[in-house]
Design brief:
The structure is a single chain. The protein is elongated and about 65 Å long. By secondary structure, the protein is of the alpha+beta class. The protein is built from nine helices and five strands. Helix 9 links the parallel strand 3 and strand 4. Helix 8 crosses helix 9.
Length: 224
C-alpha cells in the first residue's frame, strides 16, 4: 500500500502539519526527506530500511557518500541534499550561539557540538572562541586523531585565542567509542590548556565530551 492510500492522519506530511515534527518517528521524518520510495516500497519502508542499515540517524549522518549511495533508492543527489540539511542545521545553531551569551544558551551550545561531532570516526578537538560578553566569535576544529597532551598543543590554542582576541573559550572533543566519561588524559589536557590560556588572561569556561547521544560537561561535573 502506498502512502497516498494511508489514512490522512497517518501520512507523514499531514501528520507533521497537524501535530508538529516532534510527533513523527525517525523513519517518518526521513521519509519526508526522501519524498519517494522505490518499486514495492513506500518512502517510509525505504526510510526504515536505511535506518536499519545504519542503526541510527547519527550513523546515517556520518556515513560516507559510498556507504549512503550503496543503498538501493539512494544516490548522490540525496546524499548532497542530506549534507546540505546538516550544514544548514549546524549554521543555524552556530548563529544562535553567536547571538547571545553562550553560558545562557547551554542547549544551543550542546546541540551545535553534538551536530558537529556525533558520528565522527576519529577524535576531533574543537574550540569555540568567545568575546568578553561570552558571545561566540569563531569555532574551529584544531586537532584530529588521538587527543593527548602531546597531540594538542597549548601553544597553538593560545595563538588561535589571541588571533580571535578571545576573552574565553569552550573546548569540545568526541569519543568515537561512545563512552562519555573523561579519561585521565582528557583531564590532564584540560588542566594544561587552562594554565596556558591563563597566562594571556583567557578563561576556559567548559570542556564538553560528545559520545553518541551523550554530551558531558566538565564544568557541570566540577572538573574545571
Amino acid at each position: 500500500m502506498s502512502i497516498a492510500d494511508w489514512p490522512a492522519g497517518e501520512r507523514p506530511r499531514e501528520k507533521l502539519l497537524e501535530r508538529g515534527a516532534s510527533a513523527l518517528s525517525d523513519a517518518e521524518l526521513l521519509a519526508i526527506f526522501l519524498r519517494t520510495g522505490v518499486v514495492g516500497k513506500s518512502a517510509v519502508d525505504l526510510a526504515r530500511e536505511v535506518l536499519a542499515r545504519f542503526g541510527s540517524l547519527t550513523q546515517m549522518f556520518a556515513a560516507s557518500e559510498k556507504e549512503f549511495c550503496d543503498i538501493h533508492g539512494m544516490g548522490q543527489a540525496k546524499y548532497v541534499q542530506l549534507q546540505a540539511v546538516l550544514e544548514m542545521s549546524r549554521r543555524a545553531l552556530q548563529e544562535e550561539v553567536k547571538s547571545g551569551d553562550a553560558l545562557n544558551s547551554p542547549r544551543a551550545v550542546r546541540e551545535y557540538l553534538q551536530l558537529l561531532l556525533r558520528g565522527r570516526q576519529q577524535e576531533v578537538f574543537v574550540a569555540i572562541f568567545l568575546d568578553a560578553q561570552h558571545r561566540a566569535v569563531a569555532s574551529e576544529e584544531l586537532f584530529h586523531g588521538t587527543l593527548t597532551q602531546t597531540s594538542v598543543y597549548p601553544r597553538e590554542v593560545v595563538k588561535r585565542a589571541l588571533h580571535h582576541n578571545a576573552a574565553a573559550v569552550i573546548f569540545a572533543h568526541n569519543h568515537p567509542s561512545g563512552v562519555a566519561e573523561p579519561s585521565q588524559s582528557d583531564q590532564l589536557l584540560t588542566d594544561a590548556l587552562k594554565q596556558a590560556l591563563a597566562l594571556v588572561d583567557v578563561r576556559v569556561l567548559d570542556h564538553f565530551i560528545v559520545a553518541g547521544a551523550a554530551c558531558l560537561s566538565f564544568a557541570e561535573k566540577g572538573l574545571l
